[in-house]
Amino acid sequence: MIVFILKRVLSMIPAMFAISILAFVVIQLPPGDYVSTYAAQIAQSGESVDSATLNDLRERYGLGENLVVQYSKWIGGILRGDFGDSFEWRQPVTELIWGRMGMTALISLCTLVLMWAISLPIGIYSAARQYSLVDYLSTAFAFLAMATPNFLLAILLLYITTMWFGVSVGGLFSPQYENAPWSLAKFWDFVTHAWVPVFVLGTAGTASLIRIMRANLLDELHKPYVEAGRAKGLPEARLILSYPTRVALNPFISTVGWVLPALISGELIVSTVLNLPTAGPLLLQALKSQDMYLAGAFILLSGALVLIGTLISDILLAISDPRIRLS
Amino acid sequence: MTGKPILKVRNLSVDFPMRRAVLHAVKDISFDLMPGETLCVVGESGSGKSVTARAILQLVAKPGSITQGEIVLAGGEDDVDIVKLGSSGPAIRQIRGRRIAMIFQEPMTSLSPVHTIGHQIVETILLHEQVSKDEARKRAIALLDRVRIPNPEQALDRYSFEFSGGMRQRAMIAMALSCNPEVLIADEPTTALDVTTQAEILSLIKELQRDRGMAVLFITHDMGVVAQIADRVMVMFRGEKVEEANVFDLFANPQKAYTKALLGSVLKLETPAPRPPRPAAEVPVAAIDNLALHFPLNPGFMGKPVTYLKAIDGISLTINEGETVGVVGESGSGKTTLGRTLLRVYTPTGGTVNYRRGDGTLVDIASLRKSGLQSLYGEVRMIFQDPHSSLNPRMTVYQIISEPLRTNTRMSEAQMRDRVEELLTRVGLPADGADRYPHAFSGGQRQRISIARAIAVRPRLIVADEPTSALDVSLRHQVLDLMRDLQTEFGLSYLFISHDISVIRYFCDRVAVMKSGKIVEIGDVAQICERPVHDYTKTLISAVPRPDPRLRADAPA
Amino acid sequence: MSLDTKPYDADALLDQQVTAGQFQAAGQWTMVWSRFRRHKLALVSLAVVGFIYFIALFAEFLAPYDPGKFDPRYTFVPPQGIGLFVDDGQGGSRFQPHVTGYKIELNPVSFRREFTIDPETIIPIGLFVEGQPYKLWGLFGMNRHLIGPIDQSQPFFLAGGDRLGRDLLSRTIHGTRISMSIGLVGVGLSLVLGMILGGISGYRGGMVDRIIQRVIEFIRSVPTIPLWLGLAAAMPKDWPPLQVYFSILVILSLIGWTEIARVVRGRFLSLRNEDFVISARLDGVSEFRLIMRHMMPSLYSHLIAAITLAIPNMILAETALSFLGLGLQPPIVSWGVLLQDTQNLRAITQAPWLFIPGICVVIAVLALNFLGDGVRDAADPYGK
User: How far apart are CA B527 and CA A276, in angstroms?
Assistant: First the structure.
């Protein structure tokens, strides 16, 4: 088992490497560099900067040199824990990013857990009681949820809560808890606010997971070992929960591979709409203004988050399925 | 075996409502099962025998349902009518696994892939008996020992995929017998097993039956198995009971036409078909010399294989003109791989196959280039085992049969049309079937289409890979006779691969016995079947159940 | 007596009993179609999708106005209802299709115009009326629109107006063309990429397959939004709209091809080992013919299913990008661009009809998903 985990962690390294290159490429794409944009902005606002300062900036960020050098400077810094500085905010990236990234991770993970918790029983029930009312309703809900863009759902939610309840539900914390240390009260405040993004994010994914669980379980329900279990005299409910469900659980667990990236993607959009203190709004801003180190760090960390999630799902899978463990 | 039947079935009918009609899977059948006896229910596909077995435990899959009849299980105080118990609820669960147990055909898929064997057996015990978990575990170990699974204590914590097919079936039997049922229903439990394993399992069931005085309802399509183990036999056809008799009476004096025809086609295979005598001087068509095919397994760290799977490990075999050479072996012997390697589906890792072409030149198939292979396929052809997957479902029969003509000849469309119709007629199919798709034909008919495709280009050598294994018994000799006729007409040679000794004995001139990639014995069919030399061949031949109950130890004098 | 009974395949037995002869000469497509027809939902969705593409095709004719036409007098006007009968002043009613006009009041506190529907003002409307001139598909000069006010100077806002007084109905209709076509063309690109790479991967196997597999896995594991945002943000702001349109297409298909590649690869891998494919090889068939004639036909229906399910993903992706301001730019109108107006909470509380393009997105995606599901079930009912 330990060997298995180690092997998986080792295979993550090339993936991480590839993501870092991808992040770097994406950042380098916009024509020009930050300093020119900065200079243009300064010029627009009527001030002026002398070229010596500009050159200093170029030097410091390694902007004049070739790509390989820039990349290695960047990666070298990251491995030392230095993610560089944000041009726009004039702060080290680490100060800006961890809190935000942490929130993104928190919300994504909460949503993932809730999605599994809801879709598992509904999926099982829909498959076991095919064509029942629950089945039809959950299928209808699933399709509708998968067809609605999540930002639209977010806006609709805002609209409804504003029109009918007169409450505005943006943000993640009430003002008094914003910078306070964590406590039970702060946690509860978080929950009352976080349900909005979690609901918005989770809807489409839950729907899709319900469909997947249902389809996989339906496949398994017709397999011979289920019939053999029935022939032993097992009661129906216990039979279904302990045998085919266990087998159908495997593809379900491995859905993390694409659910997590989708969640993080979705979180970025939704948080822009709802104005949450997570990575999204900051990343958008960073991309628009070519704030290279900030944007790069976000993309890198998002990718890392996904890889870790996939690792966890692989481990869960190995625990659950002896065929994988023993092969 | 007189006295009260343990199971009494009267007027049982099972229907399956389908989209536009109702399928009567079982029509009004009645029979008795006496305590301690083995009743074989025999029939071909579609006879309803499996549905009957499932109906007894109320396991008929929805949307099917029992529409009439009673199934009375004799009890200490009361008899209970299983039909009245319905298909769910504690009452029927009391019967399942406890008074009547069932074992299934595919042990791999009938055991849960994610639970240990021990868990599944202990679960059954705890379900029906009031014992502690430890007690149940001890019983499970004893059961595994009784079914002769080595190291039962460790085996308890293993998973089904860690065992071979025969071992899994033993575990399945242990699970079924864990609560000492009075009736065991066995639904084709040995059909998916090798013939040697089958012999072991059959004798195990017999042993356990004697120990416990259990009644066994044994479903099968194999008359040989019936002859070996049955006390009484019930024959079914298209949902109806055709005949029911004592096994000796049935084989000696079948009453109904269907039974006669069924037995007839089985017994026909027992005597070899008449063959023209072999010429004094044999002309070899293909000479296989020290052929080897090694698959690398477990690539090591740098990609260097650590072990090899020796699918073919030094085979030497000669096929002469006009001859039928059989290759017999069990699963994993490499016989199918041999056939495919001969046609270069796989490229051998060693050895040569010297083939004499129609024009007299000699080529080594093992090292032919692509262009050489293309012309080879005009002379060496293959017939596949599974009639359902060997025909492209999206091409018409005409397109399928004309394909080799397209690549190997310069015939015009009209000429090909004529040839295809001629071929269809030759193999016994209507010529207007050419524009239909494979799904419009039955399995036996599809196999004939396969044969037509094989002979379309007048080949010299045909590799037949288990061409009759997927067919009902009654069809087998028809297909074999057709192949025999074609051989005489076109001067063909066959390499006939099969796991079924009786088919080999019927059809082949010589036979090679394969085990683990090697030939252990080779010789005349008569000699191999009657006077085998090698130990493995002896085991193989003796394990085949002959469809003649008089050969049994307990046959009446 | 013939013992040639079919194997116990219930469906096959049924076919034999009930539809004797009917399906025997039926080819693949006939069978797919007849299975498809049984899904009523899929049939309805087919009609809906067809209807939406019809709108996209004839957008200029169907929309009452040009999407850019604005009228500052009518910012955030509510939608007008269509009435069919008017009072003829003599106690009865006559048939006169019309919309009702507006009463405009100036709110003294907020200095905003407030509109109320004024039932007294009748604006007659008609079919095939003369309106703003346009060029159908940029080629044919016409000036007839499907529906509009008889008097061109009257306001006609069936779906309300936006913050510049533009007709939301016209903009939504024109947006249909852009949003739906991006889906279609984008998938076309993904199809080509996916078929080539998936085909090579599945057919060749070995090292090539492993490499392509890793690439696909990698792309799937990268969160798409940051990637898109990055690529989209990298586009110079001064590009002409059509170029932006095509670059967005390319960006979207660069991610979308993986799904199609997976389907193609899966099918090729399983087909490669099918007996009938091996048999064709043993017929001496050339590799090209083997792929095109023997393997591809088993692929088509899966491909169609994959495509119909990929289009809605493209539409959702474009909508999201344009919504964030990183996709299509004005004056090109897509549903995503239209939905940008909903970001302003105050605006939508005042004018909830701005959600209408969102409803169009949901309907289009729903219909395409049902259609795709129906095709996938019909193509291979065993879900392989």
Answer: 86
